[in-house]
Structure formats: C-alpha cells, structure tokens
Design goal:
Layout lengths: L6 H4 L4 H29 L12 H6 L1 H24 L8 E4 L10 E5 L9 H28 L6 H5 L21 E3 L3 H9 L16 H16 L7 H31 L9 H18 L7 H21 L9 H12 L13 H17 L5 E3 L1
Antiparallel strand pairs: 1-2, 3-4
Helix pairs in contact: 2-4, 4-5, 4-8, 5-8, 5-9, 5-13, 8-13, 9-12, 9-13, 10-11, 10-12
Length: 382
C-alpha cells in the first residue's frame, strides 16, 4: 500500500522544523502587521482610507511602534518559556497571532501564546511560569517608557502630523469638525508617575495625542495587557500566581468573587433608568442573556446562574438610578465574556507544595504591578 508523501516530507522537513518555520513566519507577519498598525496610529489615518498620504518613509516610522511593542510581547512570552524550561516542562516557542485589515484601527496582533505540553504541574510550577512572563514584560515596558518620556518631541510635534490643525493652535481639539473622533487614553498610576517625575512637564502630550507618540503608545499598551494578564482570575497569569500563593480552595473563592466584581463594574450604565421603555424592553432581557452566558463557568447550576445574573443587573440598575453620573467601562464586558465563557474562572487542581518567602514576596509584588498598570477606563472616544 502506498502512502502519498506530504509537502513537508517532500522537502525533507521534520515536523519540529515545520512548526519552527510556522512560528518564524508568524513572527515576521506580525512584525509587518504591527508596523502597518503603528503607521496608522501615528499618522491618524487608515491606510485604505486614503493611500495618497502613504509613502515608504511613513511606513518605516511604524517600526517605532512595532519594535518596542513586539519586543515587550516577546520578552513576556519568553519569560514563560525559559521558566518552563527551567522546570523541565515541555513547552513550545511562542506562536504569534497577526491581525490587521487596514479597514479599522487595530494594534496589528492579537497577542502570542506558548503551548505547554506537560500535564500535572504543581502549584509552584504554575506560579513560577505564570509570574515570569508579566515580570519580564513589565521590566521591558519600564525601559521603553523611560526612553519615551525622556525623549519627547517639542509641543509643535502634532502639527507635523496634522498641519491643518496649525490654524487652531494647541486648542485644536475643541475646534475639530463634528465628524472627527478623538481617542483618549486613560490614566494609570505608573503613567502618571512617569509624567510627573521623569518627563519634562512642558513636553508631556495630552492623552488624546499619546497614540501619535509610537514609543509611548507601545509602552501604554504593554501596561494595559500586563494588567489584563495579571487579573487574579482563572488561568490568566494572575490566576496562576494566586493559585500558587493560596491553593485551590481560596483561589476558587477569590477568583469567582473578583470576576463577578469585574463584570459588575464593566456593566454599569448598560441598563440606564433614563432610557425609553421601548429600549428597556429588549435591552434588559438581552443583557440578562449575556450575563447568564458570561457566568457559565462561575455557576454550574443554571438556576443559581440565572439568579446571579438577575441580582447583578438589578443592583446595577438601582445604582444608576441613585447615582446617574456613575460610570463603568462597558468595553470590559467583551473581555469578561471571553474569561467567563471560554477561559473559565476556575483553575485545574494541582499538587500543592509549600512555596518559599521569596515567591510569596514576588506574588504580592505582582499585585502591586497590577495596581500600577491597571486603568479602569483605558480607552474612550469623543
């Protein structure tokens, strides 16, 4: 019986070499897509909107975003990789996920991941592998931000990108046509510290200009993704750290509680008491359905899940009724849905061995990193 040869076999390539080729290819594609995305953010224009403004020199400037951003992402993943190797855990090199269309703003990637093939890790291994990535990425982000804040251009830099704003002066943001969208980057403690104590205060750009400063934008996004990864929920890096520190039972309680608080904050404002009755008629049941699905890994019993969804929605509604100006951040709902519906808020049980004080200190330090990096409202559009 004859078995036809695959293309890999015809090229004399082994399966491991094939995987490595895929990983290298994905990396270079992601370098290209993040460079194109960086060009769009820096110059405030989509490539396919009007290609007349585009030239090779501007595309190359996209590297000022893609190199630091992809560099931080790579160090994060290799932090996981090398720690896994130290524990003799069978792990793959990173797989990068390019994502760019040119039709809407993106950051050129959906991240990267490593594949852990070894099963039955203990809590110490989960802890070490989980914390190594955020620590490596955080240190790299600090270096990038320090460079960015100590090499700020002069205040007229924005007019080199948008010369048409020069006629309005630095108050241009209040005089833009109504069809312009202004994107604001939110505050976090670390960014504020850099602005106040590292940068020249006269050169610090307003937060609606930060995406036009590619190195600062790369650093900001790195802090954003670091904080997301350090959420002490489920099997996120922060969840692994929490599991290593406190074990299965305490992780289960804290992870579920924090996830419910996260969803609660994210959903404030969805059910607006000032909305018309006709809007509430379909908004309320759709939102309940969303909560019911997002809570699927938190409550296995369907009745308890439905009750939790109703309680969360009701408290959000009453809170909005009593304090109309209170705001959550509805964009977190998507991330919450991914965690609750697909990634899960629980952690697989593992052998629990004692961890030393150094690891405990690093674990609590990672909580400090989360607090420094987290922005309740990271992006807003006016």
């Amino acid at each position: 019986m004859y078995r036809g040869s695959t293309f890999v076999e015809m090229c004399g390539m082994k399966p491991k070499n094939k995987t490595l080729l895929i990983q290298i290819t994905l990396f270079f594609i992601t370098l290209i897509t993040t460079t194109l995305a960086g060009t769009e953010w820096q110059f405030g224009r989509l490539i396919f909107d009007n290609s007349e403004w585009l030239n090779w020199e501007k595309v190359v400037k996209g590297l000022y975003f893609s190199i630091p951003f992809l560099g931080i992402l790579t160090l994060h993943e290799f932090g996981h990789f090398f720690m896994a190797k130290k524990h003799k855990v069978d792990v793959s090199l990173p797989f990068y996920i390019p994502f760019w269309t040119g039709l809407f703003l993106s950051i050129g990637t959906m991240g990267a991941f490593i594949r852990i093939k070894t099963k039955d890790l203990n809590n110490k291994q989960y802890f070490d592998i989980g914390i190594a990535g955020p620590l490596a990425g955080f240190i790299a982000a600090l270096i990038v931000l320090y460079y960015g804040f100590t090499h700020l251009p002069d205040q007229n830099y924005i007019f080199t990108i948008f010369p048409e704003f020069l006629q309005y002066g630095h108050d241009y943001v209040n005089k833009l046509p109504s069809n312009w969208e202004v994107i604001y980057l939110g505050d976090n403690l670390l960014f504020t510290l850099f602005e106040k104590f590292v940068a020249d205060p006269a050169l610090v750009p307003p937060h609606y200009e930060l995406m036009h400063h590619p190195i600062l934008f790369a650093g900001y996004l790195s802090l954003f993704f670091t904080s997301m990864n350090l959420l002490p929920i489920g099997q996120l890096d922060g969840g692994h750290i929490l599991y290593g520190l406190l074990g299965h039972k305490k992780h289960a309680v804290i992870s579920k509680s924090l996830f419910i608080l996260f969803i609660f904050f994210a959903g404030i404002g969805i059910l607006n008491p000032l909305s018309l009755f006709e809007e509430m008629v379909y908004t309320f049941p759709l939102y309940l359905l969303f909560l019911y699905s997002a809570l699927s890994s938190s409550f296995e019993d369907k009745k308890n899940r439905l009750m939790a969804a109703v309680i969360i929605a009701s408290i959000q509604f009453l809170l909005q009724l009593m304090f109309p100006s209170i705001e959550g951040y509805n964009n977190w709902l998507f991330f919450g849905f991914i965690i609750g519906r697909f990634l899960g808020v629980n952690h697989p049980e593992a052998e629990e061995v004692p961890i030393n004080n150094t690891r405990k200190l690093l674990g609590w330090f990672s909580l400090l990193i989360f607090i420094l990096c987290f922005s309740p409202q990271p992006f807003s559009i006016n």
